[in-house]
Structures are given as structure tokens and as C-alpha cells.
């Protein structure tokens, strides 16, 4: 097979199986060995966590770039285009390089298939192989790698990182890495490596010991949020980071974003790279993370956030309700979710005063009306046309109101693209 355009590469990737029957790393390791183990040619940072891992990766990647490091970034999901998943110095991978990498991988896979005709990678494994190959060929100084799901059995867990990061542990993907919080903590602690430091974010007390025991077994030094470093957040004031050696100030954001920033800063400081306190503050304040607490407008306040599990939704709603108390307006929520998520639990988080609309997008896993629990359908209106519904909700919002778009990065991405087109039309 020889790819000639990006769409063919992406269509092919999504035609591959999602998972293997075995949850081991044998397929990805075999493929990377055939590619001369590109993952070992670059210094890496490995990031897992139920929430906050994407934000932490973006903040850390920006800090490394500002310190003059050629920095790779592998994150998911994408908001605008597939190429976002693999970045170099803040730029998405080009279509040409994507095609070239896929062809290089196809070449080694066809060799493997000469002796093992049924050998095939799952979608995410293929993406991981492309990312590591790209970062090695571009001679990155560092690559920041976000796991797909979990940790120990995740297909990115083929590296010995300079630093491991676990942002949070909560319930998500229970059917794959659960079912309990303890199971999820054990799985995520699998990215901790021998003699390599680990930075821990806001880990629930009941599972902290599991992670600390793993760090102890691996002789991995631990930096723990609220013990070795912390972020003090006061409403509408700057956030203050402290770690014993320095005090830094960042523009006000939701508390959870503050924790992600503090984790990224603490991990960055382990590298002893030359960046002044002022440069660190500037790098963080300049970082834009697509689809995460992204503010589109302030009158009304329009917030896009791809929160798609209990913990993320709880954090987002806490922030929105805090804002509501200050603005004395109405909260409107446009939500679309995947049908394999904890739909009942998520909808239990809304207040009776929140005006919620259900919608969907054209995507196989997207929940349609019948996929929502009966009590949710009985409570909230469902409109299949997300574009029309968003436009109506935006028009109905007064200057002091809040409009949230949430539940999935796919919906957030669609809204961002729609807003961008509207902006272009205004300018021409």
C-alpha cells in the first residue's frame, strides 16, 4: 500500500481495529523495533491522568519551547484537525510528513507480514508509531507524550521518560481499566519508571498510597501537589505558585487549570533549563489549549470545554456556577456525549436552574436521542441540529448569561470551526 493523500491515511487509520484481544504491548514493540526504536532516540515526558493531562502537556510543551528546546507533542483527541495530535514546536505535523510516515510504517509492516500474514496494528498503535518516528527523525530535544487510556497497558508505555506525570485519578474508562478507583490508580501508576522522578497532581487520598508504593518500588523520587508544591487560587485574583524555591504568579483561571499549571511548572523545573521566573509566567499565560476552558466571548460568557466524564464535568460546572453568582445571569448548556459514557451520573450534576439542551453530531459513537436515559430525555429537550440549536442559544443569551458547550471535544471542535467561518465571513 502506498498513500498519496492525508484523507486516505486518516480513513485507513480509522478502518483499523480499535483494540487487540490482548491488552499487551507486543504489537507496538514489534513495530517500533522494526523502525529501529525511534522512541529511545528522544528524551520524553510521559503524562497520564483521568483529567488535566492534555492541558498539562500543552503547558509543559510551551515551557520547553520557550527554554529553546525542540519539542514534540503527542496529544488526543484533536479539536480542529487530525494533524493536531502530532506537533513540533507548537505546529501541527504537515500533510506531507503524515503521508511519508505512514508509508514508512507500511513498508516495515509488509515485511513483518511476510512471516506473520495476520499482523496488524490497532488505530492508536499506528498513531503512536508515527509520532515516535517523527520526533526521532526531526531530532527533538524533548517529546511530551500523553497516554491514550490508562498507563501500564497504554500503547505509549514503551518509553523510559525523564519524568512521569500523573495529574488526577477518577472514574473514566472503567470498563477497560477499572472497574474500581484502585484498579485505575494501579493502571496509571504503570508509567512510573525506575529511578525516574514522578510529579503527582491532585490524587484522591484513598488511592494515593497505591501510587506512592509503586514509586517506592521503582525508587522514583516523588513531587506531590500540595506537599512539595502548590497553587493558591483566590477568586478573580492571580494564582500564586509556590515550591519552596520560588513564587510565581499567573493570571486567574479555574482551580483545576491552576493545578495542571503547577504540575507542568514543577515537572519543567526538574530539567534545570534556563528560564527566568518572568519567562515561565509569560509562557504559561500565553498558552492556548484548544477546547479546554476556552472562552469565546465574555458578554455573554461563552465557554467551550470537552469535559466528557464525571470529574471533568463537576469541575466545569463548579467554575460556571461560581461565575453565575458574580454575573447573576442564566446558565445555558449545550451538551453532546458519547453513548458509552456515564450519562446518568453526568446529568445528575446539573442544577434545576441550568437550561440544558441535548444534541448530537454525525459520528458513530455520538449519543442520539434514544441513547439518553429516559429520565434525561424527560427533563431536557433534544435537538439533532447542533448548529441551529447553538445559534439559538447564543442569540437567547443576555450579556450577563453563561453559555457552556460541553460533553465532547468533537462538538467543541465543530462549534470552533463554525465560529471561525462566521468570523471569516464578517471580515470579507
TrEMBL record:
Cross-referenced InterPro entries: Folylpolyglutamate_synth, Folylpolyglutamate_synth_CS, Mur-like_cat_sf, Mur_ligase_C, Mur_ligase_C_dom_sf, Mur_ligase_cen
Domain Mur ligase central: 47-248
NCBIfam families in the cross-refs: folC (TIGR01499)
Protein name, per record: tetrahydrofolate synthase
Domain Mur ligase C-terminal: 291-409
EC number per UniProt: 6.3.2.17
Family: Belongs to the folylpolyglutamate synthase family.
Catalytic activity: (6S)-5,6,7,8-tetrahydrofolyl-(gamma-L-Glu)(n) + L-glutamate + ATP = (6S)-5,6,7,8-tetrahydrofolyl-(gamma-L-Glu)(n+1) + ADP + phosphate + H(+)
Keyword Acetylation: no
Keywords: ATP-binding, Ligase, Magnesium, Metal-binding, Nucleotide-binding
The keyword Nucleotide-binding is annotated on this UniProt entry: yes
Amino acid at each position: 500500500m502506498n498513500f498519496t493523500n492525508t484523507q486516505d491515511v486518516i480513513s485507513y487509520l480509522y478502518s483499523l481495529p480499535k483494540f487487540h484481544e490482548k491488552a499487551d504491548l507486543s504489537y507496538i514493540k514489534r513495530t517500533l523495533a522494526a523502525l529501529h526504536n525511534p522512541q529511545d532516540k528522544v528524551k520524553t515526558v510521559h503524562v497520564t491522568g483521568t483529567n488535566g493531562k492534555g492541558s498539562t502537556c500543552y503547558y509543559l510543551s510551551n515551557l520547553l519551547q520557550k527554554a529553546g528546546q525542540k519539542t514534540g507533542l503527542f496529544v488526543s483527541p484533536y479539536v480542529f484537525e487530525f494533524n493536531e495530535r502530532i506537533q513540533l514546536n507548537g505546529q501541527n505535523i504537515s500533510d506531507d510528513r503524515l503521508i511519508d510516515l505512514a508509508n514508512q510504517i507500511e513498508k516495515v509492516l509488509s515485511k513483518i507480514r511476510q512471516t506473520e500474514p495476520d499482523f496488524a496494528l490497532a488505530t492508536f498503535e499506528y498513531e503512536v508509531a508515527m509520532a515516535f518516528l517523527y520526533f526521532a527523525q526531526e531530532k527533538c530535544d524533548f517529546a511530551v507524550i500523553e497516554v491514550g487510556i490508562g498507563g501500564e497497558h497504554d500503547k505509549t508505555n514503551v518509553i523510559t521518560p525523564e519524568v512521569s506525570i500523573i495529574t488526577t485519578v477518577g472514574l473514566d474508562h472503567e470498563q477497560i481499566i477499572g472497574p474500581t478507583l484502585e484498579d485505575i490508580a494501579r493502571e496509571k501508576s504503570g508509567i512510573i519508571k525506575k529511578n525516574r522522578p514522578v510529579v503527582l497532581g491532585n490524587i484522591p487520598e484513598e488511592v494515593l498510597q497505591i501510587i506512592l508504593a509503586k514509586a517506592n518500588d521503582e525508587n522514583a523520587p516523588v513531587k506531590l501537589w500540595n506537599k512539595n508544591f502548590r497553587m493558591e487560587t483566590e477568586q478573580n485574583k492571580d494564582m500564586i505558585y509556590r515550591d519552596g524555591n520560588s513564587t510565581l504568579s499567573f493570571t486567574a483561571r479555574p482551580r483545576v487549570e491552576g493545578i495542571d499549571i503547577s504540575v507542568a511548572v514543577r515537572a519543567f523545573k526538574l530539567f534545570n533549563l534556563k528560564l527566568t521566573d518572568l519567562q515561565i509566567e509569560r509562557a504559561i499565560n500565553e498558552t492556548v489549549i484548544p477546547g479546554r476552558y476556552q472562552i469565546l466571548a465574555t458578554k455573554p460568557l461563552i465557554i467551550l470545554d470537552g469535559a466528557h466524564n464525571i470529574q471533568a464535568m463537576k469541575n466545569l460546572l463548579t467554575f460556571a456556577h461560581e461565575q453565575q453568582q458574580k454575573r447573576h445571569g442564566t446558565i445555558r448548556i449545550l451538551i453532546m456525549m458519547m453513548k458509552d459514557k456515564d450519562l446518568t451520573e453526568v446529568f445528575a450534576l446539573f442544577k434545576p436552574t441550568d437550561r440544558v439542551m441535548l444534541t448530537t453530531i454525525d459520528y458513530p459513537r455520538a449519543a442520539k436521542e434514544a441513547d439518553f436515559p429516559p429520565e434525561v430525555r424527560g427533563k431536557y429537550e433534544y435537538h439533532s441540529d447542533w448548529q441551529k440549536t447553538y445559534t439559538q442559544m447564543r442569540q437567547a443569551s443576555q450579556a450577563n448569561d453563561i453559555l457552556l458547550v460541553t460533553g465532547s471535544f468533537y462538538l467543541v471542535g465543530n462549534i470552533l470551526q463554525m465560529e471561525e467561518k462566521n468570523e471569516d465571513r464578517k471580515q470579507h
